[in-house]
């Protein structure tokens, strides 16, 4: 039995013991107290301190009549999927991004697990929406699996999730530019992709609020592995060639990993992508022009006009 399961059993027993005596409700820990007391949330604890929300989640919610928050809490394993293995590694992130990311996990009021319905949505403290998706017997918020619900706190409710929720609030191109301008990680990322999008002339299409895409976005390392030493090297190809390659990374309609409902998809360029099995919340992607599939590096980034998944290979047509 892992530490998280042990904690949930203890927490559940405590809730049962206190639920019949509402005058003892203040004996429950706060949401911040849950993170502090449980080793499975130690990275979340560090993030809350660094991001400046620990004090907020230690108190009643002034924006809710009952003083409550609902928090979808990523475990240590959820942070580790982003390469954030402990509180000390959070320093690679810009604080403003970390704060906004934490707020994307928070809602005003109590949202009990029983009210989570397939296709439903929930507003976050950032006003960026979040979507509930049922996949078989599993429940997801965006692309994050809900591992446990209704861990009660004195100032609200905690639901446990297996991936960090990521929402930018801006369009696909602007989201990529946030990464390339080092406004997310302190080291730039997607610099090659931004150069390719601008050079190809596709920036207006991928910025248009009337368009909606799933984008499989190759990382800088993916471009380097394909032989591009610098972003400027992309311009050794023609604009038409770059556009053709980029369109092979776009599928109409933004979808989270949890919404994958087929083995293939037709790209915006008319190509075919083949998906591997859905495993631990991710899947592989193969195009006709590569011999081994691409893996997801960071999945499920919600943008205002679609969903972006960072991948480790270029999907050649």
Task: Describe what this molecule looks like in 3D.
Helix 6 (172-180) packs across helix 7 (191-200). This protein is 27% helix and 23% strand. It has two domains: 3-165, FAS1 domain, CATH 2.30.180; 172-311, FAS1 domain, CATH 2.30.180.10. It contains ten helices and 15 strands. A hairpin with a 2-residue loop joins strand 14 and strand 15. The protein has helices at residues 3-19, 31-37, 42-50, 76-80, 95-103, 172-180, 191-200, 203-207, 220-225, 239-247, and strands at 69-74, 106-108, 121-123, 129-135, 138-141, 144-153, 156-161, 166-167, 213-218, 250-252, 264-266, 272-275, 285-287, 296-303, 306-311. The model is unreliable at 5-24 (pLDDT under 50). With 317 residues, it is of the alpha+beta class. The protein is globular. It has a seven-stranded mixed β-sheet with strand order 2-1-7-6-5-4-3. The protein has a five-stranded mixed β-sheet with strand order 8-14-15-9-10.
CATH class category of the largest domain: Mainly Beta
**End-to-end CA span:** 46 Å
DSSP helical segment count: 10
Which descriptor suits the 3D outline? globular
Fourth CATH level, the homologous superfamily of the largest domain: FAS1 domain
Regions with little confidence, pLDDT below 50 for 5+ residues? 5-24
Helix/strand structural class: alpha+beta
Which sequence of SSEs, written as H and E, runs from N to C? HHHEHHEEEEEEEHHHEHHEEEEEE
The largest β sheet comes out as: 7 strands, mixed
Compute the number of strand runs: 15
**Average pLDDT rating:** 92
**Rg to the nearest angstrom?**
21 Å
CATH T-level topology of the largest domain: FAS1 domain
Which oligomerization state do the chains in this entry correspond to? Answer: single chain
Number of domains: 2
What topology, given as strand order, has the largest sheet?
Answer: 2-1-7-6-5-4-3
Fraction of residues in H or I helices: 25-40%
């Amino acid at each position: 039995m892992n530490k998280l399961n042990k904690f949930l059993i203890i927490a559940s027993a405590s809730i049962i013991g206190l639920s019949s005596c509402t005058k003892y409700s203040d004996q429950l820990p706060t949401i911040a107290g849950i993170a502090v007391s449980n080793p499975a949330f130690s990275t979340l604890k560090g993030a809350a301190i660094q991001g400046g929300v620990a004090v907020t989640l230690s108190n009643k919610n002034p924006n809710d009549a009952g003083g409550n928050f609902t928090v979808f809490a990523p475990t240590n394993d959820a942070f580790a999927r982003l390469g954030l293995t402990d509180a000390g590694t959070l320093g690679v992130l810009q604080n403003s991004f970390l704060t906004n990311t934490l707020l994307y996990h928070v809602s005003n009021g109590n949202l009990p697990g029983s009210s989570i319905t397939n296709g439903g949505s929930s507003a976050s403290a950032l006003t960026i929406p979040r979507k509930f998706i049922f996949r078989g017997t599993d429940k997801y918020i965006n692309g994050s699996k809900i591992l446990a619900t209704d861990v009660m706190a004195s100032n609200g409710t905690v639901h446990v999730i297996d991936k960090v929720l990521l929402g930018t609030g801006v369009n696909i191109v602007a989201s990529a530019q946030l990464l390339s301008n080092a406004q997310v990680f302190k080291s730039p990322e997607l610099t090659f992709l931004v150069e390719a999008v601008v050079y190809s002339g596709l920036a207006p299409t991928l910025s248009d609020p009337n368009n909606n895409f799933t984008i499989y976005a190759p990382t800088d390392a993916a471009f380097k592995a394909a032989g591009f030493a610098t972003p400027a090297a992309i311009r050794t190809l023609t604009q038409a060639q770059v556009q053709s390659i980029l369109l092979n990374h776009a599928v109409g309609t933004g979808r989270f990993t949890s919404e994958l409902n087929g083995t293939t998809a037709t790209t915006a360029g008319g190509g075919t992508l083949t998906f591997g099995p859905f495993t631990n919340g991710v899947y592989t992607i193969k195009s006709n022009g590569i011999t081994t599939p691409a893996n997801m590096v960071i999945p499920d980034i919600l943008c205002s006009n679609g969903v972006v998944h960072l991948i480790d290979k270029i999907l050649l047509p």
